Amino acid sequence: EKGTYPHYMLKEIDEQPLVMRKIIQQYQGADNELHVDEDIVKAMNDSDRVYIIACGTSYHAGLVGKQFIETWAKVPVEVHVASEFSYNMPLLSEKPLFIFISQSGETADSRAVLVQIKELGHKALTITNVPGSTLSRESDYTLLLHAGPEIAVASTKAYTAQLAVLSILAAVTAQARGIKLDFDLMQELAIVANTMEVLCDDKEEMESIALQFLATTRNAFFIGRSVDYYVGLEGSLKLKEISYIQAEGFAGGELKHGTIALIENNTPVIALATQEHVNLSIRGNVKEVVARGANPCIISMKGLETEEDRYVIPKVHETLAPLAAVIPLQLISYYAALHRDCDVDKPRNLAKSVTVE
Ligand code: F6R
User: How confident is the model at residue 356, as a pLDDT?
Assistant: First the structure.
């Protein structure tokens, strides 16, 4: 039920702080230890390479998840779009572990890969919102998102839940491998939940950004470096699927290798700046597009902000920044679609669960 909300999408965006707290509760024992099925931790620990397989928004979550697993647990990770993997399988490592990320657990492209890799005798873990879904039943292990039903076609709370669960998986794997993290993940996720609340309370500001940059534009670009690039990919997918604005996400340094030709007077360029080590370089990329007439909307994180920024996200742990940074992008997309009279919850040509290959 969407209750007093005009759309499921807005309700589901607002639920994200609650979902974070639910995930913390589900994965943290009374002893304050992380609780993930021993067999899953063992499978992670035994593998020499993790292959994440997913589609769409779940694929974008996988890209960020790779960052968590590689930086914290030091296990190499490859992230693949399911429909490509099935027809163009890369050379696999000796002891691969497959992670399927799927909100619905029913996506046919992902299932096709699951069937293939099971035939090869490999193990699979599914991260899904739906217990008993096909991918969950056919995998060796399951981790649940605990996000509650996601009704809007555009995925929002499932994405942040996927990131949170992937971060927990990365942290328990690090622990199992004797790597000590210099922060308390659950504490940091609790801070993320509070920050999400602040961001969700800032809807007027998000609406005004949408009106300022996206009310009439034909196209828009999202740029970022490192994990900000991955969040930009998700932001651009949200925007195109519900507002029908042609939107593309790019690595900050890549735009100038061709796509910058598309920048015209007033083209909106939404730039994310939440990562200290690339803060100067992404701001350099903003200057490049501004010199070609772009209308820049910089969204930064507290501590890295400058006067030119349009919006500053409160500080969260830098590696977890995607969990916070995606929320303004979800809300901006929502308001852009709303003001362009689009059917927010049921965009044209799309289905919630894609059960054909
Ligand atoms: C975008 C969106 C889709 C799904 C994709 C995978 O908002 O919802 O891109 O993320 O179809 O779906 P699941 O996660 O159910 O496998």
Answer: 82
Model pTM? 0.97
> Hey, what are 81's tokens?
């779009």
pLDDT greater than 90 at residue 10: yes
Please, which residues have CB within 8 angstroms of residue 160's CB and are 6 or more apart in sequence?
Answer: 16, 19, 20, 196, 323, 326, 327
Give the closest residue (by CA) to ligand 1 atom 13.
102
Residue of the nearest CA to atom 11 in ligand 1? 56
Ligand 1 atom nearest to CA at 60: 10
CA of 168 to the centre of ligand 1 (A): 21
The answer to whether 352 is a known catalytic residue is: yes
d(CA 22, CA 41): 21
Q: What is the mean pLDDT of the chain?
A: 96
Contacts of 282 (CB under 8 A, 6+ apart): 223, 224, 225, 228, 252, 271, 272, 273, 275
Give the C-alpha separation, 2 to 191, whole Å: 27
- Distance, CA 356 to ligand 1 centroid (Å)? 13
* pLDDT tens for each residue of 81-124: 999 999 999 999 999 999 999 999 999 999 999 999 999 999 99
What is the whole-number distance in angstroms between the Cα of residue 23 and the centre of ligand 1?
20
Q: Is the distance from the beta carbon of residue 57 to the nearest atom of ligand 1 less than 6 Å?
A: yes
| Contacts for 261-265: CB closer than 8 Å, 24+ residues apart | 262/219, 262/221, 263/221, 263/289, 263/292, 263/293, 263/294, 264/292, 264/293, 265/293
Give tens-digit pLDDT for 144-202: 999 999 999 999 999 999 999 999 999 999 999 999 999 999 999 999 999 999 999 99
Distance CA 52, CA 321 (A): 21
- Picking from 135, 171, 122, 145, the residue whose alpha carbon sits closest to that of residue 18 is 145
